[in-house]
Request: fold
Amino acid sequence: MFCIFCQNHDTEVIETRVSEDGATVRRRRFCPKCQKRFTTYERLELLPIVVIKRDGTRERFDREKLKRGLFKSCEKTVVTSKKIDKILNEVEQELKEKDATEIESKTIGNLAAKRLKKIDKVAYIRFSSVFKRFVDLDDFEEELKKINPIK
Reply:
């Protein structure tokens, strides 16, 4: 790394810290030529996630849009905002780990629904009814049988 003061190409790292979320590395540097210290930040540059919608159109992944859908599904349930944030973080992390940068909306919906199902069945049914486009009572009954089969 070159010195921002004298452009010397031979600087030393004297301290390294990783941010809490692990996304950024802060390095404190020293230039032996001009004796000055400076800080650099390293962040991984990721390509944006593009969502392929049902109609074939594409739009950039919007975390807030998914968050609104989850909050709406969880109204008047015991699901806390902390749990919703955990779901969002897990879904977003799983999307970033995929090889593809273009992902179908149903894949994102399935990832969120799978996690919601473990936390609250009512919220799961509400979320699924929108994302799977339930049109009548039979669709609800079918989904209810999947999560609570009669023995």
Notes: The chain is about 45% helix and 20% strand.
